[in-house]
Amino acid sequence: MKQYDMLVLGSGAGANVASDAYEQGMTVAIVDNDRFGGTCLNRGCIPTKILTYVADLIMEIRNADRVNVKASVEAVDFGALMERMRHETWDESEEMERSFGKVKGYDFYKGTGEFVANYTIEVNNERIKAQQVVIASGARPVIPDIPGLDKVQYFTNKTVLELHEIPKSMIIIGGGFIAVEFGHFFSAVGADVTILQRAPSLVVQEDNDVSELLRSELTKRMKVLLNNEVVAVSEAGGLKTVTSLDRETGNKKDFKAETILIAAGRKSNADLFKPEKTGVKVDKDGWVIVDDYFRTSQKNIWAFGDALGRQMFRHVANQQSGIVWHNIAETIKPAEGHAPRLMKMDYHAIPRAIFTYPAIATVGMTLQDAKASGRPLLVGKADFTSVAKGLAMGNPPGFVRVICDAEAGAILGATIVGPEAPTLIQEITNLMNSGNTDFYPMFESIHIHPALPEVVQQAFGNLAPIDHEHAHHH
Ligand SMILES: Cc1cc2nc3c(=O)[nH]c(=O)nc-3n(C[C@H](O)[C@H](O)[C@H](O)COP(=O)(O)OP(=O)(O)OC[C@H]3O[C@@H](n4cnc5c(N)ncnc54)[C@H](O)[C@@H]3O)c2cc1C
Question: What are phi and psi of 290, to 5 degrees?
């Protein structure tokens, strides 16, 4: 059996810990059953943002008549844009894979790994063991148990990136961020898209008015059905029929399309890697249980990233990977004369974005979170139309909402929906990590006029106790 100092399951953010360990002189094995680099590089963030950028551009051209420019998209070279996306991501992954085997003590095992005993993984009929084990096994798409689905061809985020031709029509099952990002892309390039969402709103973790604005904007370009549960799927003559049950009326309706994309949530990979064989506890859904320091129930086995089933974003996994490496290094060799000084992750200001159209970005608490916290709140909202740059842009729909603690002035959270939301949210994220985390620097800092950050400042200018939120609007 091959022995290493460290074994890392998953080559996404897991690779960060692996390379830190290798640089510090440890021997390391990384196991992954998919392209090296994990979901973000190969199946998630990066390829999809290459696609949504194209979709944004197409929408900007279509919306140019807002500012009296007559423009139209002549043609979309779908084959070439998909090829560019794959080239920018998969080629990088392949290059990283090729670099293995060139140095000693840093090995990549391509195959599904499963624990067979404590600290021991079997992969491709080979057993490997290490003193330190890092589980960064991510998550994979949920395939809902729908009668007939197993008899038709369907795509997930893993396979849809392999397309070479624009599907004429696509039914997307699900209404979370992956569904609305792909919906935005495929409809922009010309597919006839239908989103069938079981929940009463799109992107359910966002506040209702945010989901509702997104629904009303997407509805201009595609069908969006809420409260619709898919109950059967079949295929005849090259067309798929998806039967959905309207959960409000109890009526069933058939939808037909050339392709189906499943975007119905993410599930744990624990069924593949069998954590119980190494004494690692998972919750009822298979997400790995860790303490504040990312220690699992088994000594010297650590877990982080999507494998924990919370805040599933690459920037969260990256931040955690640094903490995990710090904690491992401290555990192995504490700083001179000290007990190990372990670090915790600070979750109070995690930003996240949904790259649809309009884009959505959130940091910290949503309004529903803040109300549930029971704190006295100040809430401020400003529409993009309330600042000069918004007028210049032809009044795009969207708004900024900021939420503060009424007593301490601390910023609790913010949501932005509209142009440049993922960029605009950063100003608030940084404030939430500096000084008293209060909002006063927002007014001490001069904002360029007329530029979009003024809408963020304006939202803070509109702060009022929550009951007066609407009265003080504008
Ligand atoms: C379509 C899509 C779009 C996304 N867009 C964004 C975005 O814009 N921004 C953002 O921050 N996040 C985005 N995410 C989420 C982001 O991709 C994840 O949060 C991130 O990749 C998690 O990293 P990780 O290292 O925890 O897991 P992963 O990157 O998923 O790595 C885990 C790896 O482990 C492998 N693995 C699991 N079990 C085994 C086993 N038993 N044997 C061998 N290998 C195994 C998996 O194949 C995988 O390669 C997106 C996700 C999807 C699906």
Answer: -130, 165
Positions marked catalytic = 449
Six-digit token string for 141: 């798409």
CB atoms under 10 Å from CB of 3, counted, come to 14
Residue 312: CB atoms within 10 Å: 18
| pLDDT at residue number 337 | 80
Residue 226 confidence (pLDDT) = 98
Residue 474 has pLDDT above 60, yes or no: no
pTM (two decimals): 0.96
pLDDT band at 333 (very low <50, low <70, confident <90, very high): confident
Tokens at 380, concatenated = 């401020």
Token pair, residue 196, equals 């069938």
Amino acid at 217: E
Within 13 Å and on the Cβ side, how many CA atoms surround 2?
19
For the beta carbon of residue 254, count every other beta carbon within 10 angstroms. 10
Q: What is the mean pLDDT of residues 22-38?
A: 97
Q: Are strands 169-173 and 192-196 parallel, antiparallel or unpaired?
A: parallel
DSSP string, 261-275: EE-S-EEESHHHH-G
Q: Which of 99, 158, 101, 107 is closest to 130 using CA atoms?
A: 107
Per the CB < 8 A criterion, the answer to whether 5 and 21 are in contact is yes
- Reported as a single tens digit per residue, the pLDDT across 160-186 is 999 999 999 999 999 999 999 999 999
- CA-nearest residue for atom 6, ligand 1, is 45
Which residues 6+ apart lie within 8 Å of 387 measured at CB? Answer: 450, 452, 454, 455, 458
How far is 2 from 417, CA to CA, in rounded Å? 52
Q: In the predicted model, what is the mean pLDDT of residues 92-114? A: 94
What is the spatial distance between Cα 229 and Cα 71, in angstroms, rounded to a whole number?
Answer: 39
How does pLDDT run across 276-331, given as a tens digit for each residue?
A: 999 999 999 999 999 999 999 999 999 999 999 999 999 999 999 999 999 999 99
What residues does ligand 1 touch, defined as CB less than 6 Å away? 9-14, 31-34, 38-40, 43-45, 48-49, 112-114, 136-138, 157, 178, 269, 272-273, 305-307, 312-315, 317
CA 452 – CA 325 distance, rounded (Å): 38
